[in-house]
Specification:
272 residues, alpha+beta, Rossmann fold, Ribosomal Protein L9, domain 1, 3 domains, five-stranded mixed sheet, 10 helices, 29% helix, globular, binds S-adenosylmethionine
């Protein structure tokens, strides 16, 4: 943030607290630089609001990936968060984030409840709203990676919440050119993502085994072609004569085996 708040204001104490958090993060920079095999650190920790990244000095089209865990639900303006993320990402960039989602739009009385807000529940987005906002901002369809129920134990809160239910979910949103060609493709993962040499768990629908041919839908193909994954895959349009297109013995029938995990991404919400 450009200016620090007035000393003695409540916000000032929050500001000091965040600076302590930044100190802790910075302490481990060298450890991670070495662990991930970099000569020089490629991370920087700065103070700012997720929905106002320009105030923190983050420039347009300058990042490959944004990672966030449990922050988006704490901001009242989710559209601003996604717009800012889209702005600072390079073409082909990705927002990979975990958060809490609700089965319905929460009413104002729950959204404005300070305890529910602090528990990451009051600010939880209706999962269908994520789809709408992502589309409005220009991201690809949110791709679910994992999801699990977010259980509330406190009796008072449970009573307050009634039929509203929550899940904790991780999504991937890609910034790909809107006019890029979209055709179904056959792709082969080449095993070159460090730590994922045998298989690459892409999302709940696709786990790519190295060397295996997988037919992917139009949007997945566009993402793989236009993101940092382009160098990790051989990608070609689905051939009319299937057997001629790929070496025999390598073909996977339909999607990868992991597609059985989730046939459609909102599967985890349907039981709510
Ligand atoms: C539930 S914690 C998650 C922290 C961390 N990501 C983790 O996984 O441990 C939420 C964090 O979001 C930060 N936060 C809340 N509102 C924010 C905003 N509008 N912009 C940026 N950070 C925010 C809080 O300061 C807090 O550190």
């Amino acid at each position: 943030m450009a200016n620090s708040p007035e000393p003695s204001s409540a916000l000032y104490y929050y500001y000091l607290f965040i600076f302590k958090q930044l100190e802790v993060a910075r302490k481990y920079t060298d450890y991670h630089t070495e662990k991930f095999g970099y000569k020089k650190s490629n991370v920087d920790f700065i103070y700012g609001y997720i929905e106002k990244l320009s105030e923190a000095g983050l420039k347009d089209s300058s990042f490959d990936i944004i990672i966030s865990n449990g922050v988006v639900n704490l901001t009242p303006d989710k559209t601003a968060v996604l717009k800012e993320a889209w702005r600072v990402l390079k073409d082909g960039g990705e927002m990979y984030f975990s958060d809490v989602y609700a089965n319905l739009n929460l009413p104002q009385e729950l959204r404005g409840h300070s305890v529910l807000w602090g528990e990451c529940l009051g600010g939880a987005l209706w999962w269908k709203e994520l789809l709408r906002i992502a589309q409005e901002v220009g991201f690809s369809t949110p791709r679910l990676v994992t999801a699990r129920p977010f259980n509330v134990d406190n009796k008072d809160l449970l009573e307050l919440l009634g039929d509203y239910k929550f899940v904790s979910a991780t999504f991937r949103l890609f910034k790909i050119p809107p006019d890029c060609p979209r055709t179904k493709c056959e792709v082969i993962y080449n095993g070159s993502v460090r730590g994922c040499e045998q298989q690459l768990e892409f999302d709940a629908n696709y786990t790519f085994q190295a060397g295996e041919v997988v037919e992917v839908d139009e949007e997945t193909a566009a993402i793989l072609k236009n993101s940092r994954f382009a160098a990790k895959f051989t990608i070609q349009p689905v051939s009319t004569s299937k057997t001629a297109a790929v070496p025999s013995g390598q073909r996977c029938s339909g999607q990868s085996k992991a597609s059985e995990k989730a046939s459609s991404w909102p599967f985890c919400f349907q039981d709510l």
